[in-house]
Structures are given as C-alpha cells and as structure tokens.
Amino acid sequence: MRTSAVVTGVLFLLLLVLVVAGWSPLLSFDRAVDEALHRDALARPGFTHLNRVLSDWVWDPWTLRALAFAVALLLARYGRRRLALWVVGTVLASLGVQQAVKALVGRERPVWRDPVDSAHFAAFPSGHAMTAAVVCGLLLWVLALVGREPWRGWGTVAGIAVVSVLGVGWTRIYLGVHWPSDVLAGWLMGWCCVTVAILAYRRSLVVRPLPAPERDHGGEGT
Length: 222
Prior knowledge:
Layout: H1 2-21, H2 24-43, H3 45-58, H4 61-77, H5 81-105, H6 127-146, H7 154-174, H8 180-204
C-alpha cells in the first residue's frame, strides 16, 4: 500500500510538471484525442446525450460524495464511528486538495465553437475522475474491512467500481470538457489520497504500549 501511494504520487507530480511546463508531445496528444472525440460527439447526438446523463447525474461528484456520506452514516449507526469519520474526512480532504491544485495550475479547458457540454473551474485535475477514484476506492476498502467472510457479490461490486472510475473519465473527455491528461491526473491523485488515508487509518489503530510504572527501588527506612 505504501508503494502504491508513493508511485501514484510521483506519477501525478511528474504529470503536473509536464502540464505546467507545456510539454509539447503531451499537449499535442491531448488536442488530437479531444478533437477526434469531439467530432464523434457531434455526429452521434444520442450517444452524446447518454454520456451527459452518466457524467452529469450518475457519476456526478456530488452524487458519489452523497453515496460515500450515506455509507458513513451506516457505519456510524453500526458502531464503526472511527471508520465513518475517516471516510467523510478523506472525501472532504480530497476535495480541498483538488480545488487547491486546480487553482494553482489554472489550466484552461478545451474550447469549441460548437460545444456539447460545459463545465466550470480549471481543468487540471479532473474533479469527476478524482472523486470517482476516491469514493470507489474508499467503498471497496470499507467493504473489505467490514466483511467477515467471503462474499459472492464482491466481484460484481468491484466491477461496478472499476467501470465507474473508467467510465466517468471517458465521459469527461468525450464531452470535450477535459483533456486526457486531466483525467489521468485525477485518477492518480484520487488513488494516492485513498492509499494515504488507508495507511493513516492503520497507523491510528496501532496501540502503543503504556510505559511500565516506575518501581520504588528504595528500601524501607532502617
């Protein structure tokens, strides 16, 4: 888990540097992918509408955050208050980090003469992609913690989580409101937040032994 946190953190920082520096190969790749998908989105309005519904409603960041908060309420109700607070705290902390990076980088979103969707705030990293990675990662972790025995539905839930994370990234690029590198950055930063939260939670559960009481080595008065 620690290795995963370090690797994703380093990769995110590398991508951040390339974006800020305006590395030409990366920018050219972003532009080529977005232009090709934008042409397809204009040619297929029905499929584009489906992507808008998925992006703006099903996988909207506030929808996913509401799901995480609902799970936290259930955890608190069944006596797992520490875990519930950790879920809520991680979701809120990741939101703060996301907005701070957006403000610092200030990357412009793609601009089209004939847009098929719109979005606000800076582009880097993708808030949709990051939120999906954070919430889905946290919920899978919670499910693994509270499950007392192997559950047949685990594969289905994990599959839905993976589809959601990848799917929301696709919709943001297809709708022309993010560059591919924005989405990749959101995934990397989101998973880094999850792994750091898990490591911190495990550390918080470590019970440190209390110091042994001092013994009175002095003899009784003679």
